[in-house]
From TrEMBL:
Family designation: Belongs to the SAT4 family.
Organism: Purpureocillium lilacinum
PANTHER family, alphabetized: INTEGRAL MEMBRANE PROTEIN-RELATED (PTHR33048:SF47), PTH11-LIKE INTEGRAL MEMBRANE PROTEIN (AFU_ORTHOLOGUE AFUA_5G11245) (PTHR33048)
UniProt keyword Transmembrane helix, yes or no: yes
Organism placement in taxonomy: Eukaryota, Fungi, Dikarya, Ascomycota, Pezizomycotina
Family annotation (InterPro entries): Rhodopsin_dom_fungi (IPR049326), SAT4-like (IPR052337)
Protein name, entry field: Rhodopsin domain-containing protein
Length: 347
């Protein structure tokens, strides 16, 4: 029995924490880098969705930096082998970690909602987007204030001298709202996809891209089940380690899924350059990716190797739906500018 107790106390989740948190932090950086590279490739202007996702990336790397510091103060080890000085510093760092985490998911959701505005031209859908964005803000802002001022005085969070809200109850309540809004935001464009004048196969493909966002929901749900519901204040450095890991995984997964529609431009461009010989096709592709438009707002591009140009003889708001797989959702809006629904457009 004593041998088992000693073995249990000596457990350390350090390797798992380092591997998972570092991997997802790097993946989130690559996703945002790819997104901004695609914007530059298309000479497309940066908009609110880009700035929000960049802000979300900053939160991820803030979480990573705090994780590194917490790791030096016992995170992933049992409380029994952590000194009082380390524990005090751990609580101090935990205070900032939970603030960064509370802010991060709403930031990702706002980026996705503003991306929907680029993609879908419907004013009715824009109203839904604005309503959901308002709800996300009304949830995120108060939650942030609660995470900052949940103790009186604030320093009681790490000194344990004062009164604090029940951190576990707050964490569970926040997670439930977070997961609910995740599902709502990721599933809300599905009905609008089927109203676009496109072949069914392309509608299904777009739906699948948005359904990948359910991985973000799964990560948030896993964080709730594996960390918040089993939180034990008596062994905080051990049980909080799972929460640290899944917090970074959740936000990073949200960033990855949100960047997928835009990154497809870059991936398609890289694939085209790799597989097509230099026999004139590349010149055509460069025109496809140049982002130039004619006076009517239609992209000036040639069809090559399966790419199909739009039929500019059609009236505004209509398109030739006999396009190939590369012709994804770049429909001109009633204002004469393109609604960015095409991976070779400005999404």
């Amino acid at each position: 029995m004593l041998a088992n107790t000693v073995a249990d106390v000596s457990e350390d989740r350090g390797l798992t924490l380092w591997a998972c948190i570092t991997t997802f932090a790097i993946l989130s950086f690559l996703a945002v880098f790819g997104r901004f590279s695609a914007r530059r490739l298309k000479a497309a202007p940066l908009a609110a969705d880009d700035w929000f996702i960049l802000l979300a990336l900053i939160w991820v790397w803030a979480l990573f930096g705090i994780f590194v510091a917490c790791r030096q103060n016992g995170l992933g080890k049992h409380r029994a082998v952590v000194s009082e000085a380390q524990l005090s510093q751990f609580y101090y760092l935990l205070y900032y970690f939970q603030i960064c985490y509370v802010v991060a998911p709403p930031t990702v959701k706002l980026s996705l909602l503003f991306l929907y505005k680029r993609i879908f031209p419907s004013r009715r859908f824009h109203l839904v987007v604005h309503t959901m964005a308002l709800l996300v803000a009304m949830w995120g802002i108060p939650s942030t204030f609660i995470s900052i001022f949940n103790c009186t005085p604030v320093s009681a969070f790490w000194t344990r001298k004062g009164s604090c809200l029940d951190f576990k109850k707050f964490g569970i309540g926040y997670a439930i709202v977070n997961i609910t809004t995740d599902f709502a935001v990721w599933l809300m464009p599905m009905p609008s996809v089927w109203t676009i004048q496109l072949p069914t196969s392309q509608k299904i493909a777009l739906c699948l891209i948005f359904l990948l966002g359910l991985f973000d929901c799964a990560a948030a749900l896993t964080r709730l089940v594996t960390s918040m519901l089993v939180l034990d204040e008596k062994d905080v450095t051990w049980f909080y380690s799972t929460g640290f890991m899944w917090s970074v995984i959740e936000v990073s997964t949200g960033i990855l899924c949100t960047c997928l529609p835009t990154m497809r431009i870059l991936l398609q461009h890289m694939w085209t350059k790799r597989v097509r010989p230099s026999n004139g096709h590349e010149a055509s592709d460069s025109r496809v990716l140049s982002g130039r438009h004619d006076k009517a707002g239609w992209p000036q591009r040639l069809s090559s190797g399966g790419g199909i140009s739009y039929d500019r003889t059609h009236s505004m708001g209509h398109e030739d739906c006999s396009a190939s797989n590369d012709r994804w959702f770049e429909v001109p809006s009633s204002r004469g500018s393109d609604v960015e629904l095409n991976p070779v457009g400005h999404v």
